[in-house]
Design goal:
Layout lengths: L3 H17 L5 E5 L4 E3 L7 E7 L1 E7 L5 E8 L3 E2 L2 H4 L7 E4 L3 E7 H10 L1 H34 L2 H9 L1 H15 L5 H29 L8 E4 H18 L2 E7 L5 E4 L1 H17 L5 E9 L3 E8 L28 H11 L4 E4 L7 E7 L3
Parallel strand pairs: 10-12
Antiparallel strand pairs: 1-8, 2-7, 3-6, 3-8, 4-5, 4-7, 9-11, 12-13, 13-15, 14-15
Helix pairs in contact: 1-4, 3-4, 5-7, 6-7, 8-9, 9-10
The structure holds adenosine-5'-diphosphate.
Length: 365
């Protein structure tokens, strides 16, 4: 960030120069969400923020607008168009109700002619902004490269390898224990076998994708029977983490088109995320509803809920927060899978509740 001192130097110098030159300051007020100027508008002056918050954004493609940065009280913006005598290169929008000091291009030029300190303060602020922009740009480039390097499906599979491997490790430990009863050993063997099947399936899926096929067949499946298997497969791992699954409204006894192997990932990811946020144990409440078009599912946990300000980013690949070993891929995978079924998935913020995710699955393909 530009040092507060440096921003304040320019803005306070500007204010004192205005006073000294007896130029009447123009104060403009904007409501939250109001556009201050648009990309392409004439660059008629600069703005200093007296209070509020302003976002500068620009189009990175024909339809995609990208937030470049935000400015708060004590900051200034809109100076570029004055310096290079051009139209606005970005759009400025008030993010909160804001009061701004507007100084026209002619006034700025006059003031700068009178005050070399003002020119230096502006240059200083500029050089710091430039440095900040460079490092931001490098970060964005690396991020874009990282995303393009990894195929959508390859990413999902790499992430999902973690879960079966941890079940296998747990089961292997259980069989290795001298005190393990024959029943426990048989159960662990079954778990290892199940998870090896899961891994084999994932690798086959990866192979299919690398061959160019992204078709994922949906087959008619009874949802109640399927969900009972999900519970059966996840119970032990969750019990180990002192997490219980409570089915508060039963899975509908209806046949619908599913790819159960892929849908498994959705439940496993949502359950594992919930468990990760309840390190001392807790409850996962699952509720289903059915209407003539779709099944609606809700998965709620008794953890701390979503950290303020992150819900919009939850499904963005690589977005992770509060998990030292998080990859940020789990939810974006869930979204791909649910959408490939023709459904939707979204988080629900409910005051006093933990994390809540909702998704739908259409009854007809
Ligand atoms: P990862 O779990 O690898 O971080 P995800 O895409 O599964 O990646 O999740 C992204 C982020 O969403 C998590 O890092 C976490 O901050 C947040 N999140 C997901 N599930 C929950 C939950 N049940 N409660 C609180 N936060 C959650």
């Amino acid at each position: 960030m530009i040092s507060a001192e440096c921003r304040a130097t320019f803005v306070s110098l500007l204010e004192s120069e205005l006073k000294q030159q007896q130029v009447e300051p123009v104060v403009r007020e904007y409501r939250a969400g109001e556009v201050i100027f648009e990309e392409g508008d004439p660059g008629d002056g600069l703005y200093a923020i007296l209070n509020g918050l302003v976002r500068i954004s620009a189009f990175v493609s024909q339809s995609n607008k990208h937030a470049l940065r935000e400015f708060a009280a004590g900051d200034f913006f809109g100076e570029m168009a004055i310096i290079n005598n051009a139209s606005r290169s970005a759009t400025a929008t008030a993010q909160q109700d804001s009061r701004l000091l507007f100084v026209s291009r002619d006034q700025v030029t006059d003031l700068m002619e009178q005050s070399p300190q003002l020119v230096f303060a502006l240059l200083h602020a500029f050089s710091l902004r430039m440095r900040e922009t460079n490092s931001h740009f490098v970060h964005e480039m690396l991020e874009a490269e990282r995303l393009s390097l990894m195929g959508r499906f390859a990413r999902s599979i790499v992430h999902d390898l973690k879960n079966p491997l941890s079940v296998i490790a747990l089961a292997a430990d259980a069989t290795a224990s001298e005190r393990a009863s024959p029943e426990l050993r048989a159960q662990a063997k079954k778990r290892i076998h199940q998870q090896v099947q899961r891994l084999t399936h994932m690798l086959n899926e990866l192979l299919r994708v690398s061959e160019g096929s992204t078709q994922h067949a949906l087959e008619p499946v009874n949802f109640a029977t399927y969900f009972a298997e999900v519970i059966d497969q996840t119970r032990d791992e969750l019990e180990n983490k002192k997490v219980v699954v409570e089915v508060q409204a039963a899975a509908p006894d209806i046949v619908l088109p599913l790819n159960t192997r892929r849908l498994d990932h959705v439940f496993f990811n949502l359950f594992n995320n919930a468990a990760d946020f309840m390190p001392d144990g807790g409850r996962i409440m699952v509720r289903f509803e059915q209407n003539p078009r779709e099944i609606y599912a809700e998965v709620e946990d008794t953890g701390p809920g979503f950290k303020p300000g992150i819900v919009d980013k939850l499904f963005t690949p690589f977005f992770t927060d509060g998990k030292p070993t998080g990859t940020g891929l789990g939810l974006s995978i869930c979204k791909n899978i649910v959408e490939d079924h023709g459904g939707r998935i979204w988080p629900k913020e409910v005051a006093g509740c933990g994390g809540v995710f909702c998704f739908t699955l259409p009854l007809k393909a």
